[in-house]
Amino acid sequence: DESVVRRDRFSGGPARSFLSSLAADERIFEADIEVDRAHVVMLAEQGIVEDDVAGQILTALDAIEVDGHGSLPDGEDVHEAIETAVIERIGAEGGKMHTARSRNDEVAACIRYRLREDVLEAVETTLALREALLEVAEAHTETIMPGYTHLQPAQPTTVAHWAAAYEGAVRRDTKRLLEAYGRINESPLGGAAFAGTTFDIDRERTAELLGFDKLVENSMDASSSRDFLLETVQALSTHATTLSGLAEDVIIFANRGFVDLADDYSSTSSIMPQKKNPDTLELVRAVAGDAAGATQGLTTTLKGLPRAYNRDLQRATTHAWETVDAVTEASEVAAGAVATADWNEDELAAEAGAGFSTATGVADLLAANGLPFRTAHELVAHAAENGGGYDALEDAARDVLGEPLESLADPGAVEDALDPVESVASRDSHGGPAPEAVAEQLEGAREALSAD
Length: 452
Ligand code: ARG
Hints:
Elements: H1 6-9, H2 16-19, H3 29-45, H4 51-67, H5 78-90, H6 103-139, E1 144-149, E2 152-158, H7 159-184, E3 186-187, H8 203-209, E4 214-215, H9 219-224, H10 227-255, E5 259-260, H11 279-302, H12 312-340, E6 342-343, H13 345-352, H14 359-368, H15 373-385, H16 389-401, H17 411-418, H18 420-426, H19 435-451
Parallel strand pairs: 3-4
Antiparallel strand pairs: 1-2, 5-6
Helix pairs in contact: 3-4, 3-6, 3-8, 4-5, 6-7, 6-12, 6-19, 7-10, 7-19, 10-11, 10-12, 11-12, 14-15, 14-17, 15-16
This protein binds arginine (ARG).
């Protein structure tokens, strides 16, 4: 039958649904309409398709857009289904839409077009999180808290210093996403199947109509590369990893009574009536696992793929959608949880000096007075073994050096070094936790946030 187009012969049979990306392509339905429009406008401007045919195609695309993805005829993917819908509306002339292109450059353009907006949304959530962290920091430059290494009490710090630390990490996450954005925002359209076209197309024009900054120049590179997907998913995964650490910290702080999460960011138990659990942050923590898994899946799919287009790429795309959705939501939730949490200053102050966490400051004091730091470390370690504190230090001075503590440091200075508030105030080195050092960090963070 002459009227049966070649496509119908390759209907897919029992493998139809396995071959089809139509359902997942709902994500790029709008993008495909835009890509079709830009392509058709360019074809008309170049005299490749008659103006009146182009006009009919554009009118059909408007109607198809209104009807939505759900009304599309069956097809192997959204590109084929939209073309079929155009032909159903205006007849065979609608088939001119696919002149001088392939689904290979088309799908790459659609993914980039849609991913741009998704990545910008992800960037927005990183900005909101940075704002939330900075607000916490600005309100708590004097709120001392225990600082940990190996999750053991290490040295007193402040809530501001802690929050600014995460702000710094999220700031780099923003940058990585913006850098990925720059490389997403390049037009592959006009690459055709991979080998260019005989038609006198204007790739710069379609790039301009679609708001792409520049071209992916080489047509084979344009149609078949997906490193832009990989770096986007990696950047998102890195951000999710930052979020997971932040979530874990807050979960631990909540557990120790240092912070109260707002009810909106907590859950209770269906059986234990007293429970208030940090479930939102546990889910944030878990998203990093999903993102790492998607990065692994995508990398493995892309690894060893020959140039040019291979259908494997269809399954590469979904990793990006899942990751950008999950990480954006996690980032947003983390920002909300941080913004609404209450810090318990009394609990934090009471615990700031626990575990002889001011020991390093005492060793620093002795070293500043001329004792070799290693000797000071030994002396204070000896005191730590006997419970820490002033009396233990006096014993240690006698036991280790055979000298009274007073000969090594002024008693008032030792008392100050043992005090968590003084301990924090004295660590005013560049980037340190002393309130004025943190104030400088926050100034820089504010400037960076308004620049991003
Ligand atoms: N749906 C495909 C994808 O997502 C695009 C179609 C290209 N198909 C092809 N057989 N060349 O990658």
